[in-house]
Amino acid sequence: MFIYIQYNKCGGFCQHSHHVVRKRGTFMAIHNQVFLYGQITQLPRIIKDEQGNYVQGSGKLTIVSGKRNVNIDGTHSKHAKIEYGELPVATGNPELVETMDNIKIGDIVFIKGNIITRNVKKIKKCPSCGAPYEKLGVITFINPIHLSIEKTGLTLDEGETLLKNYGEVSNVATILGTICKAPEVTVQTRKNMIVKFPLAIDRKYFIADDNPETRTDYPVVHVHGKEAGEDILKRYQPGAEVFLDGCVQYRKYKHQQYPCQNPDCQEFVPWDDWTLDIVPYAIEYIRGWKSDKQLEEEAYEKAGIHPLPAAASE
How far apart are CA 253 and CA 188, in angstroms? Predict the structure, then answer.
């Protein structure tokens, strides 16, 4: 089953990669691909070791996301909009870090990569006493497999003008994963709904500086649209697999306030954080979803009606 979404609002480091070989008969959905075409508006952070070898590179890429208002017949609305945003990129591949080190402000960059999640310890300081507050959290970023400088010598204004023509290809994500927690409604109005759920995606590559036992990433998906959200909620069952065609967005959200860990301080530590989410334009149910027949049977059961058996063929 394939669903177009009437969409109105979109919005760690790795070392050398090695292919993962899985035993015959084991299966988990594996497809995690992101294509980015964007501009550098601030220089990346480059780390070298004592011998001058490239170790890590990280930074932000400014992209433009096409706002696909999709009509019921699958055609695109004339009112589709675009929006600029930044996405975090990080790599420990020395060749790619060297390319990052040659980047200049204003350059246009092309990236092919995947979405990586990593459990980390996050630290913020108390605004009153300065004591550190620690908590476990997750960072999500784009791990480039390919990174190239496409245009150089541009001003920021020239790059912004150029990107307007690349709204359909500046930020593209195609993902195949298994929903690992029941979808939940985060926003609901008379005309709109946002449904959130995490995906489990097996890695195609080992990441050398990550835990060798970590072979799965868990990005979060936000589905916008009342009809799409309602359909997901009624058809979902544990183990459901889904294919997503959309974009990624990096957004700030307010978490909550935590009491300072200094026993002599009565202050609360405000905790605002950033998250990278997948926002699909279209969803395809792969396997493990409730069929129309199952939904019909559930409706009969809920109403206390026993449907007549199908007539025998003559």
Answer: 18
* Lowest mean per-residue pLDDT among 48-52, 75-79, 217-221: 75-79
Q: Which burial class, exposed, middle or buried, applies to 276 when counting CB atoms under 10 A from its CB (0-12, 13-18, 19+)?
A: buried
The structural domains of the chain, with segments of one domain joined by +, span 2-302
- Class of the 2-302 domain? mainly beta
Task: Quickly count: other Cβ atoms within 10 Å of residue 296's Cβ.
Answer: 12
How far apart (Å, rounded) are the C-alpha atoms in residues 62 and 39? 5
Say which residue, 78 or 54, is predicted with more confidence: 54
The model's pTM is 0.81
Q: Using pLDDT thresholds of 50, 70 and 90, give the confidence band for residue 241.
A: very high
Q: Could you read off the pLDDT of 265-278 as tens digits, one per residue?
A: 888 888 888 889 99
**pLDDT classification of 27: cutoffs 50, 70, 90:** very low
Q: Are 121 and 238 in contact (CB under 8 A)?
A: no
HSE toward the beta carbon, residue 204, CA cutoff 13 A: 13
Is residue 110 scored above 90 in pLDDT? yes
83 within 8 A of 171, measured Cβ to Cβ = no
Looking at residue 60, its amino acid is: K
209 alpha carbon, distance to own chain's centre = 21
Q: How confident is the model at residue 82 (pLDDT cuts 50, 70, 90)?
A: confident
Contact present, 222 and 206 (Cβ < 8 Å): no
